[in-house]
Amino acid sequence: xxxxxxxxxxxxxxxxxxxxxxxxxxxxxxxxxxxxxxxxxxxxxxxxxxxxxxxxxxxxxxxxxxxxxxxxxxxxxxxxxxxxxxxxxxxxxxxxxxxxxxxxxxxxxxxxxxxxxxxxxxxxxxxxxxxxxxxxxxxxxxxxxxxxxxxxxxxxxxxxxxxxxxxxxxxxxxxxxxxxxxxxxxxxxxxxxxxxxxxxxxxxxxxxxxxxxxxxxxxxxxxxxxxxxxxxxxxxxxxxxxxxxxxxxxxxxxxxxxxxxxxxxxxxxxxxxxxxxxxxxxxxxxxxxxxxxxxxxxxxxxxxxxxxxxxxxxxxxxxxxxxxxxxxxxxxxxxxxxxxxxxxxxxxxxxxxxxxxxxxxxxxxxxxxxxxxxxxxxxxxxxxxxxxxxxxxxxxxxxxxxxxxxxxxxxxxxxxxxxxxxxxxxxxxxxxxxxxxxxxxxxxxxxxxxxxxxxxxxxxxxxxxxxxxxxxxxxx
Length: 476
Hints:
The protein has helices spanning 18-32, 88-91, 107-125, 140-148, 176-182, 197-204, 213-218, 229-233, 269-282, 303-315, 328-340, 353-362, 378-384, 395-400, 421-436, 438-449, 456-472, and strands at residues 2-6, 36-42, 54-61, 67-76, 81-86, 98-99, 102-103, 131-135, 161-165, 173-175, 194-196, 207-210, 239-241, 290-294, 319-323, 345-348, 365-368, 388-392, 414-416. By secondary structure, the chain is an alpha/beta fold. Helix 4 links the parallel strand 8 (131-135) and strand 9 (161-165). It starts with a strand and ends with a helix.
């Protein structure tokens, strides 16, 4: 099967979050299953092909009556073809989406150009993919253009499409004036005041998915649907969840070069060495369990719950390390606590990829008290590194972590329900009690480390979705 991915990020070329990891890892996994994958990506500043590139010049229709000269650079990536849309006025900028905290005013035009260039390249080459797989609102213009500008095109009409929603909070809202000048879409698309590119992309897609089965159900509720609950509910079974995986070669404590010691499921001695080295690195002393948290410091991630319970956990003998950036008030609260308990609590206010790996390996427990979490990778990485997760029962966290007290035979972590401090503290205390029981601790660690969180199963599920989308449009 030939898959055309349209995305705004792809590791290692352009990344602001987990979307980039998914696009790269899924594309590689599909390639390993024998499928041909093209990843269409803007050529942002500093992005270079990893090897020799073929150049295709394109004259692409743009918003209004304009046209833009674009170069499409095609090069081999790791298991797929990378196709970079090169238009310096659109993409040669300091940021991917914004600068100095403000979105670029022409974002609609920039990502419409990405989609239009991909579609024009298909026409020029006479190569119709079996499916167009778009990601988030930035792929919305491509799906809308297929419906409204290529609906009678001999090659591209009736193109099956899948739209994956990684983050429902970002809609790509474009006011009517900007939509009319930047998008080259009929004025009937959207509302009189503008176009919600995610919502309209959802309506235009053959099938729509999000990144875990539980979040697919949760997003049908107004409080988690981010204004799209009714739109998603109207899709019926054409909207579903496929749980993300992780790159199990990239995340492997037996080979991780960022760790002071390596270890594997049948020999966990190296994990104890990682714990001791991490405490020394962060200036933590004592012998209580080490609780780690890595992520964006934001109430969505439940960091406010951590600030509410940190004193109770420290009083119970825990040591805590926090790595992340974000909400200044949350950072300040944690920093004040760290100043009071400098040998028990470490707060690192920065992004540090290698330190994150050392926390995954060196911590005894990994906390993810998220209010919502469409998929989440942290809990899967923690399990692979033999670190027991403490999570709230939401989204992908609920799909990957089973409470060890509620399900002794299959449990691999500790889960709490209400997003309230007492429930979080209770889960942490239960987890700390399990750590004190050495045979139980080892059993839970081994159970987590042997769980298959690779991309193989999700990739197979995406292939099944591609086939279903093709059947829905009557593709041969």
